[in-house]
Design the sequence.
């Protein structure tokens, strides 16, 4: 299967020369095509269904490298010209549905999850394909459907009743900047000043970490004022049910600290018309929790003392597809394949270590593998066993990193390089 996947990458690479930044206007309009899907199934069988399409003014995603992806997630979406099959856009992401498939619950009964993807509005008719992949990088579900830009059933969104937003950071070249929206969740209308203050703290916190600090001028950040009726998120285990802007909740999948939202459509509806691509949902609670899903969302609590650390750690997941560098007994995923190289830059099974941080390894040392890393300096690059939530056979680059523990407020050199490369991919 790895060979087949390698071929796919090669084919995509062969196509990459065709579309450059100057070609945007040739292929796309300056507006967004939003496609809503339903992902459903269980551990045995998964399906993707088209639920609806809408268009919004402006395009706030990448404006170059249209047919390349910087790092793979667990799903891809691409657009091909319907007439000649030319690949014109490729994007990758991960989903909560695929996280759920790793749980025992996924053996019991099928479940359905919302998924929303944003694409630049094509000028001509296109064929859109979405693929979901398993941990072996095999395609487990596919949908192919045509989109006609002239289709009158494509709903118009974000043209009126656009929520109020405040710009907190602006890129030196705003039109080429990476667009982040911080969204209010569980803040009432009266608490909006408090929300803006929390966003300012969040922005200063994120940009106090390297390499974000020295690349701050590549980001546009807005705070979107989406008031909730109730203050704070729902906490099912305490029978607290609140009516909030994004419908967030603790106890996701029965895990107390897993604070996230299943209301992906509601989240995008709340943002319609604002300049957004990457989403940080700011949840008004002092209870510890949060989660980050690559190119889907970053959601976290704003009133806990680890607010900034969690924001930055989860942004590592949601923006860069970095893996957790920790592993704990009793929390290991089912069926994690050790004969496949994982996609994330910061963990390896050694199947294809050359694609990871082999070039950064000290030349005077053979590959080392240790469980007890206490004797090593936090930034000494090597191969430290226990990463990606797997105790044996998966390695991380340094003893400690922001992706392992919030107590070390620094990304390791491997994560730092991955973040720099990703920012350059979008903006350079
Ligand atoms: Zn790291």
Sequence:
């Amino acid at each position: 299967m790895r060979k087949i996947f390698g071929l796919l990458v090669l084919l995509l690479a062969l196509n990459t020369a065709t579309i450059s930044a100057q070609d945007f206007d040739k292929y796309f309009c300056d507006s967004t095509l939003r496609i809503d899907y339903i992902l459903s199934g269980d551990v045995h069988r998964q399906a993707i269904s088209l639920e609806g399409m809408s268009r919004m003014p402006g395009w706030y995603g990448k404006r170059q490298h249209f047919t390349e992806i910087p790092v793979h997630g667990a799903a891809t979406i691409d657009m091909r010209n319907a007439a000649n099959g030319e690949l014109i856009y490729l994007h990758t992401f991960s989903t909560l549905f695929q996280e759920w498939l790793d749980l025992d619950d996924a053996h019991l009964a099928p479940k359905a999850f919302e998924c929303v993807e944003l694409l630049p509005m094509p000028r001509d008719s296109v064929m859109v394909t979405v693929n979901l992949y398993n941990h072996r990088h095999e395609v487990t579900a596919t949908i192919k459907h045509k989109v006609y830009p002239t289709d009158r059933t494509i709903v118009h969104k974000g043209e009126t009743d656009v929520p109020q937003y405040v710009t907190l950071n602006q890129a030196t070249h705003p039109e080429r900047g990476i667009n982040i929206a911080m969204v209010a969740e569980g803040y009432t209308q009266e608490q909006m000043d408090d929300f803006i203050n929390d966003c300012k703290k969040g922005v200063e916190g994120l940009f106090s970490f390297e390499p974000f600090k020295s690349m701050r001028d590549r980001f546009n950040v807005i705070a979107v004022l989406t008031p909730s009726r109730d203050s704070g998120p729902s906490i099912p285990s305490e029978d607290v049910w609140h009516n909030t802007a994004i419908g967030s909740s603790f106890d996701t999948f029965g895990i107390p600290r897993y604070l996230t939202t299943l209301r992906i459509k509601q989240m995008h509806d709340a943002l319609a018309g604002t300049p957004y691509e990457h989403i940080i949902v700011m949840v008004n609670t002092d209870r510890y929790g949060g989660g980050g899903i690559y190119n889907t969302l970053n959601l976290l609590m704003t009133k806990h003392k680890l607010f900034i650390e969690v924001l930055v750690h989860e942004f590592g997941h949601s923006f860069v597809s970095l893996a957790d560098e920790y592993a704990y007994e009793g929390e290991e995923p089912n069926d994690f394949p050790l004969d496949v190289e994982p996609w994330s830059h910061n963990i390896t099974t050694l199947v294809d270590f050359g694609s990871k941080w082999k070039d950064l390894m000290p030349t005077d040392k053979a590959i080392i593998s240790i469980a007890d890393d206490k004797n090593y300096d936090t930034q000494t690059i090597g191969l430290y066993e226990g990463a990606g939530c797997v105790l044996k056979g998966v390695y991380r680059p340094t003893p400690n990193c922001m992706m392992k523990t919030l107590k070390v407020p620094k990304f390791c050199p491997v994560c730092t390089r991955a973040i720099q490369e990703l920012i350059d991919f979008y903006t350079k």
Q: What stands out?
A: The first helix runs from residue 2 to 15. Confidence is low (pLDDT under 50) at residues 1-17. The pocket of zinc ion is lined by residues 325, 346, 397, 401, 403, 411-412, 414-415 (CB under 6 Å). Helices lie at 2-15, 24-27, 96-101, 192-206, 264-271, 307-320, 413-427.
